[in-house]
Fold these 4 entries.
Entry 1:
Amino acid sequence: MTASVEVRGVTVNHGDVLALDDVDLDLHAGRVCGLIGMNGSGKSTLVRTITGLIRPDSGTVSVDGGPPARARSRGSIAYVPQSEDVDRDFPLSVRDVVLTGRYGRMGATRRARPADRAAVDVALERTELTDLANRPIGQLSGGQRKRAFVARAIAQQATIMLLDEPFAGVDKRSEAMITRLLRQLAADGATVLVCTHDLHALPTLADEAVLLMRRVLAQGDPAEVLRPENLALAFGLDPMWREEER
């Protein structure tokens, strides 16, 4: 099976700091991959490298058989960052934010067509934000705001979705909804990569998991990746911690 995303031998340095070290990774359509690791393990750097926002010092990244820049220009890759800077006083509505996901399809005039408005309506409905569509984005709760940026990615109709800590600072309802949406998107054929700290929810969320500590330490079924000996390598945990909890 041809991978939607292929990462080969990618090394990234931030000045004198080694962020990624010879990383290999394949992501496939129709699957949710959970990317886990402690703070500073390189998760965000890897996601931004796949999107083309960071250029690796060595190695290659292929997205849909070509460079990340081409995937971005086609609108086939969507990125939901860990945090969005939102000016609470700026009168940008939820609908306006979601509509920005359609900009790559509007041409130079940025004039919304019926297809663009329909895609926004569908995205708002799927994230249960229809009733809040005209509310200023700055007035939303953290969970609602995160859902709005997921809705933007859905409106973009991207086939590859990369999400950096989409559950950070969200309520349980939003977390459950985002998890359900990501599972649905994968079932529809999307390739989904999610950075997350929530190890307990990983088996429900993901088809496979990748454990990162600048290098890929383990990849495969979430239950196998979450074995205590693997977590000990990445997090410095005592491999017996689960036994002691029983």
Note: The chain has eleven helices and nine strands.
Entry 2:
Amino acid sequence: MRELDGQAVLIFDLSGPFAHYKKIFATTTALTYPLPPKSSLYGLVAAILGLEKEGNAYLNTFREGSCRMAVRLLRPVATQRVTINLRPSFGSLRATENRKPTLMEFVDRPHYRIYFTHWDTALYEKLKELLMQGKSVYTPTLGLANLIAKVDYIGEGVARASEVEEVDSVVPKRALQKLLPPPPGRNNRLMEVGQYALEMLPSRDVTVRDSIVLDRAGLPIAARVSEPYRIEGTTQPTDRVLFF
């Protein structure tokens, strides 16, 4: 994995009324991850850029190691469960077609901050231009086609390797060395999210998965971790993040 120290980083927010990122092991009910998997963020960035969708060709742009991201929760994790009638096919409803009531879980009023960098400088600059203009080629969504995402450009910073013992972003389990006691007066409510997809081939085969540790309220996590970075050079307070 290439060192990120000194690498330019784009910062933008994702929000909306609802999000749904189906867990791979959910069968009779459609449970959601509380944050977008990295593979889903590839699709969102590809939609903004207008990359080729046929045959999942856009995933060639995000070969393993070419793109690094970090995710921060800006709103506490909350979910709602709604029973929805699902159909087995597209098109007009046929009289002989049964609809299946399915309990679906949605993230309620999600708000995420995304830190993005890519070794392709032309792609990086094109994404930066579109974000600054508030434009996208295709409609960005929060997991499902009808869950429209609001994308807000925050700024551009520089990743600086730094020894920190508090992390603002979610923490990949493989980078976690030791959880530390939180500062006095702060109680973390940590949760671990398993089977989180990190890398995917155009065949849609996931090649890398990890568990993710996050604080349900979006509070910083007191921990000793490997490869932490500070994001410097923005008008925002310096963020301490872990890229995956």
Note: The chain has one domain: 8-87+100-241.
Entry 3:
Amino acid sequence: MATNGDILHPGMKMADLMNRDFTLSGVLERVGLSFGFGDETVDEVCSRSGVNTATFLLICNVYLSEDYTPSRETLDHIDLRDVLRYLRLSHSYYEGTAVKALSGTLKSLMSPCGDTYKMIISRFFSDYTLELSRHFEYEETVVFPYVEAMLDKDVKDDFSIGQYEQHHSDVQEKLDDLKKLIMTYLPQECDQQLIHTALSEIFTLETDLRKHTIIEDRILIPAVNRLEDDGDGDSVSPGDKLSSREIEILSAVAQGLLNKEIASKYNISIHTVITHRKNIARKTGIKTIAGLTAYAILNNLIEV
């Protein structure tokens, strides 16, 4: 896989970067940067606006190459708050601009069609926009506040980014189906130019959403996973004190309970159990169930 330095670098002129692929102008806006940068470099433009340069370049790299996967070292230099700002502004763009434009195009496209065609396409697109809105709402009300709490070292709930991975749905599948319906099944009396416009808007939205999902999967989730692995922000090493919930999980493991049984007992997800077990192993330096059982007995966490 390519690394950050293989594709872009902070010393290149911002104008050259925009000329390379103008879809990057959307990234520019969504991280809080503006045009009018003259001959300034990427680093100069980002620094002037208080945007982390490594974060901006990393997002641009994903747009330029969907095969790009950041290295652990690259993730060390990004600012997760800038990633969250990009994701939030992306949501606003999708719902406030792209989806509304596509809705208007579809309405004009379907106007000469029969009631059955209108009803089917309208209902299909309405279901899609509702699914998209729910997906964004979950991220805005659950995932992003959790990440911010992690950064502020003020986590109060029992959520983990593993739960987001499990919940993370692919919001592109229905767009692909809509594209096929329009290309294949609309009557020929429909305006061909409007069909072209609708397909162009769907392709553009589909591509951007795919990159959006890649950024969540390859940047947000791995970076937050590392925050969780570090506990309260410091490097976790054997001998660090277990939290009260980790002691409960450890005791349950030592008693022979399976992950799903532990999840049911404490009303948490299996992914949360796995995260706790990973932290327990890291803190104690012990990985096997037999070893953890011995540890729990020696530390008076369970009775023989």
Note: The chain is about 70% helix and 0% strand.
Entry 4:
Amino acid sequence: MKKALLIIGGLFLALLIAVGIYAWYLYDSVADTAQNINEGEDRQSNLRDADVDMDSSEPISILLMGVDARNGSTSGRTDTMIVATINPETESTKMVSIPRDTYTEIIGRGNQDKITHAYAFGGADMAMNTVENFLNVPIDYYATINFEGFEDIVDAVGGVTVENDFAFSDNGHDFPEGEIELDGEEALTYVRMRKEDPRGDLGRNERQRQVLEAVANKGQSVTSITRIGDYLDVVEENVRTNMTFDDMKDLRSNYFGARNDIENINFENGQDRTIDGIYYMEQDPAEVQEISNTLREHLELENGEEAPAE
């Protein structure tokens, strides 16, 4: 398994595990899996003048979402939202984690709410439209994976080892400081905890990346056809995307070099806000604009002059 799985990081990992091995084993099975998880053709964003073309190696963006759902369901709220932009010419990737409680307009509903609710209200389309409006950045593709799929992919590689910064307990599991081994259930608890983390969402985002990198590293040593079949089963049951199989092949062929330069970007200046007794996080407009400009430049688009409307 190639470390290139980290190209777009996050929750698209399970999908890329399947795609990255298509040239080695089970081509037909992978093609069938890709067809079964596809929920539609390429999307042209209103923020683009024309469709993107991965065959021509244009910079692209992907919205990665971890959905609060189990038992094969892909409905629910997004516990994790990561915008990844990939530029094959500069061979670089930028990944922005959007805190789930971010207060913003939910496009298609005409009201402001937590950004995590966009997917629950209107699926991938509403989530993409809402993120586009929030960041003023086009979203070309998306991928979702539910929690059960996250657990299964960790178990499929035989568990992972991570370096835990501080000791904590959550959901019946203890996580001592230092190097720890996690199975799928433990890994899910580890990446979701935030109440005991002094960094809140920022700390949780870091643990998510930790576990996913560990999964990718373990995956490099997998050569068993049986184990690869397990990956495909997990992907087919728990992942959904608007990428076609040809898109996935182009992603691996034309964007491979972007694995060498990955920049993680976080929202650092959000302010707590309570409305009608409900907690939200209000992001600093200047920081939103700065992040928007960074992503637009990476996508080789002109920067906006004003912060996205709230």
Note: The mean pLDDT is 82.
